[in-house]
Specification:
alpha/beta; Rossmann fold; 11 helices; 10 strands; about 45% helix
């Protein structure tokens, strides 16, 4: 497989940009194809079967774009479809849950870890299972925070709406004595400042994006697929709806102008 082929990064919407940001920092020579399923966000309330269907459509699209590896940069899609994707496709595919769980397990000092995520991720107990593989003595305090996704998608991360929502969601976790909090949805780091102010400096926020990017680098090194860096990296952005809105928020979050996102009919895949 050509090392100059792009990496595919897939999310239900904007959240995967938090993972993309870390990938471009840790792997600056890599070409990227990003797909955000903005027509069908959020995935959290949807059934496992539906999330698998959506994930496979995204993978099929990315394979058509010639990617060499895929990052499922969505906690819900990782929790509900990663195993099936790895079985059905002959290409390196990784998710974000394992990396986040590993970081949390080695970060906590008092063995009380908070996990926030979509309804689907929290119901799956994916983080509890992965953390338990590392240290079964760690107690997980989890909480579904479904409103955080639309708040992030609307660009309201640092508003009173976000602060009041965070206060309501996070009070239970603080009362349980957690010493670290997993941002178990890739949208949530967009609200990191607001969440951090609410829980306080003594609680460490775990963003799985960095560890996911490191895992990806390890795979590319092991399989001799690192880009040779002889040409300027190219980034392509695709969405299933409202590319103008995506581009505006992506520009603000990534702090750089992106080439216009293209709308695709993901149902074809």
């Amino acid at each position: 497989m050509s090392s100059n082929k792009p990496i595919g990064v897939f999310d239900s919407g904007l959240g995967g940009l938090t993972v993309l940001k870390e990938i471009t920092r840790i792997l600056p020579n890599e070409n990227i194809v990003y797909f955000g399923d903005t027509a069908r966000v959020p995935y959290g309330p949807r059934s496992k079967e539906t999330v698998i269907e959506y994930t496979f459509q995204a993978i099929n699209f990315m394979l058509e774009k010639g990617v060499k590896a895929i990052v499922i940069a969505c906690n819900t899609a990782t929790a509900r479809s990663l195993t099936e994707a790895q079985v059905n496709y002959d290409i390196p595919i990784i998710g974000v849950v394992e990396a986040g769980a590993r970081t949390a397990a080695y970060t906590t000092k008092n063995n009380i870890v908070g996990v926030i995520g979509t309804e689907g991720t929290i119901r799956s107990k994916a983080y509890e299972k992965e953390i338990g593989k590392i240290n079964k003595d760690i107690r997980i305090v989890d909480k579904a925070c479904p409103l955080f996704v639309p708040i992030a998608e609307e660009g309201w991360a640092n508003t009173d709406v976000a602060r009041l929502t965070a206060k309501e969601y996070l009070r239970e976790l603080k009362a349980e004595g957690i010493d670290c909090l997993v941002l178990g949805c890739t949208h949530y780091p967009i609200l990191k400042k607001t969440i951090g102010e609410e829980v306080g400096m003594e609680i460490i926020l775990v963003n799985p994006a960095k560890e996911t990017a490191m895992d990806l680098k390890e795979i590319l090194v092991d399989q001799d697929m690192l880009n040779d860096g002889q040409s300027q990296p190219e980034y392509e952005y695709f969405v299933s709806d409202i590319p103008e809105k995506f581009s505006a928020i992506a520009n603000e979050f990534l702090k750089k102008d992106i080439d216009g996102a293209q709308k695709i009919d993901i149902q074809k895949y």
